[in-house]
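=== RUN LOG ===
request id: a7f3
mode: sequence -> structure
chains: 1
length: 385
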Amino acid sequence: MKKLTSIIVAIMLIITPMNMAYANDKENSTSMNISSKSAILMDVGSGQILYEKNANDKLPPASVTKVMTMLLCVEQLDSGKIKLDDKVQISDTASSMGGSQIFLEAGETQDVNTLLKGIAVASANDACVAMAEHVAGSVEGFVDNMNAKAKELGMKDTHFVNTNGLPVENHYTSAHDIALMSKELLKHESISKYLTTWMDKVVVGKKQATVGLANTNKMVKHYQGTTGVKTGFTQQAKYCLSASAKRGDTHLVAVTLGAETSPERFKDASSLLNFGFANYESVKLCAKDDNIATLTLDKAENNKVNLVAKENLTVLIKKGENKDFTKKIEVNKNPIIPIKKGTSLGVVKIYQGKNMVGQVDLVNTKDINKASYLQMLQRVIDSML
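=== RESULT ===
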């Protein structure tokens, strides 16, 4: 086990105890008329649940499935394993998908950018299959990756069978699990431009036909601060939605499943988001890439190592209430060198009294290599002078 050294710092944020506030607000939230079969409101920054209705019920998600499809694709993009200008040959399987599509033809080639746009804006089933084959080599392999990612994210009420949510037995998830994967997707800034595009077009087919795209998520145009995420509909699933919005530092996601009509799902999601923004705000304690600590490693080539926050760290508070928080920094003093860039070498934890309310990993910004013999000798000499 790695040995961690701790530093405790008081943060004078004027913030009061929140447990009672959350309890009171959940009571107040019951006055909302949420008609969808299942629903949840979650803070994207902290994962705090602000409202839930049958949130763990296993239900068919229809095209909201594509949140996970996009997540796996964007992870590959951000890691450099695939690129937006990669050429993808469209298979017979991809071109044969029914439902919502951008009318890809077998044998044509499209770039990743066009396919992602098709998925995010037009909910294209054919583009989902094409990307699955490009990323994993087969749809089956990609679906295995979807289920593995679901397990990694703690999605306990989920099992995927396909990439797009077309009706099939044993394909289900829950409002809670959709919020978790939506939260994870929203960490990737590279997907934002696709999720918030209202209208666009793509050129597809061997005859290079232009196909117009209109976002199926009407909140992109009609709700202030919308950042995503995805709609869905089948006769079995009814009308489904994962809707996210950001105002200031407060970023929320509302999921509704099993609404009887399309307007109903948008009304429910809007009501949930309105409730969240009216009653809560996020306090950013540190931003991604903020320099938090300096680690001294005598055996490293550069013996002073800056540690930065891996991602934003926010705490959700009830508007108008205040309390002091404590920040605890733990760093690994004796890591094994060499160390790759982006390795977790510590953590920042935020406490409210004795309760931890948030944490973020600390990572190095450069590769760490071993010091040479001459460097080590010079350091010994310097310490003796």
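=== NOTES ===
The two ends are 36 Å apart (CA to CA).
Residues 262-279 form the longest helix (18 residues).
=== END ===
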